[in-house]
Amino acid sequence: MSDISLTYKGVGSECVIELPASKSISNRVLIINALSGASAPILNPAKCDDTDAMIAALESDGSDFNIGHAGTAMRFLTAYLAQRSGEWRISGSSRMEERPIGVLVSALRDLGATIEYEKKEGYPPLKIKGCNLNGGAITVPASVSSQYISALMMIAPNMRQGLKLTLEGYIASRPYIDMTASVMRTFGAQVEWQGSNVISIEPTGYSPVQYRVEADWSAASYIFQIVSLCPGMKVVVPDLLENSLQGDSGQVELWRELGVKCNFTPSGVEICGNDSEKSLLDNQPLQYNFALMPDLVQTFVVTCCLKGVKFSFTGVETLRIKETDRIAALQNELLKLGYVVKSEGDSLLYWDGEVVPSSESVIIATYRDHRMAMAFAPAAIIRKGVVIADCEVVSKSFPTYWQVVGQLGVNS
């Protein structure tokens, strides 16, 4: 991979930006479409490494799948292959072999699956002997990753007994579970919440339908970020839905605190930067619980530092097991820019305004994490000499990112 040196050249007062389709929705639709018989077309699927890995596996005639860095594909395909007759092997990158999957494997075994760890207990790669799973009632810890829960939910309509899934403890990333349920219902599944922590899914199977994937609200965060750093900028983004399945659509209210207005119009979402940050004039830290939007933590942490806004963010517990340890990565790379960001365990990330001298030119390491590259690139708006290492890593979710930010004045 190569590095990219960035400069900010400014941009006109208004431009139109095309965002990629939602990766989260695409991955769910791909699995459910396959479970339904895959006879109906998927319209506007995401075009990125993660969905490419999923499509390649689902369309392959082979039995050995290497999904690289695609964590969602690892979780979803593990469950999919467990219920598909045959003998399978699924592996990934060296980082993927460090990302735990034991909670999901244990649950699948309880449902009748035969899965072995090829190397380290609790981690990929996996050997799977697929079969028609029994289903039934199981309990899983809910605080580790919502993707485990979604993976189990999606295969449940094809189990003999369906599934009664009890979620134990705090439920991480609930909007992603609700997204999964919504897509399942579109394909004819019967999914119901019983109380606050039990999901009941009937053994109905799926019915093929034509599905169009909406634009990606996670990708939109990087557009909001640039607008936040450029008062007076106006960007129009088509195809972002106000009433979205994506939990990350909740970011709109938080961006208002950072000087960004958002208006939904027939032609798209208008994102406008301004200086009316009245709620921040008293120098109080911006406080927010990111439990429902964990993928946006990097964007908001970097933005707050660049704007000189103190913050105290909770709901960051899942960041340690993402593409990298995102808490440590943020602290390391922001220190290069002179910002001393602190943490308390896995539950709190904060900045009290402390700064230290920094070099005139810095190389931001991305740790093979697409969101590190995209969250730090706008630093070039505030200071010169910003270089993003391994810039191609953005292909995981937003392959056109560098072209898009170039439209907004952040150029190589």
Write the layout of secondary structure elements.
Layout: E1 4-8, E2 14-16, H1 23-35, E3 42-43, H2 49-59, E4 64-66, H3 71-82, E5 86-91, H4 102-110, E6 114-117, E7 126-130, E8 136-141, H5 146-155, E9 163-168, H6 174-186, E10 191-194, E11 198-201, E12 211-212, H7 217-228, E13 234-237, H8 251-257, E14 260-265, E15 268-273, E16 286-289, H9 297-307, E17 311-314, H10 326-336, E18 342-344, E19 348-351, E20 362-364, H11 370-376, H12 379-382, E21 386-388, H13 401-407, E22 410-411
Helix pairs in contact: 1-2, 1-3, 1-6, 2-3, 3-5, 4-5, 5-6, 9-11
Distance between the termini: 15 Å
Total helix count?
A: 13
Oligomer: single chain
- Mean model confidence by pLDDT: 93
Secondary structure tally: strands: 22
Poorly predicted residue ranges:
none
Largest sheet: 4 strands, mixed
Q: C-alpha Rg, in Å?
A: 21 Å
| β-sheet strand percentage | 15-25%
Strand-pairing-aware structural class: alpha/beta
Notes on the structure:
The protein has helices at residues 23-35, 49-59, 71-82, 102-110, 146-155, 174-186, 217-228, 251-257, 297-307, 326-336, 370-376, 379-382, 401-407; strands spanning 4-8, 14-16, 42-43, 64-66, 86-91, 114-117, 126-130, 136-141, 163-168, 191-194, 198-201, 211-212, 234-237, 260-265, 268-273, 286-289, 311-314, 342-344, 348-351, 362-364, 386-388, 410-411. The mean pLDDT is 93. By secondary structure, it is of the alpha/beta class. Strands 20-21-1-22 form a 4-stranded mixed β-sheet. The chain has a 4-stranded mixed β-sheet with strand order 2-13-15-14.
Keywords:
alpha/beta; four-stranded mixed sheet; 13 helices
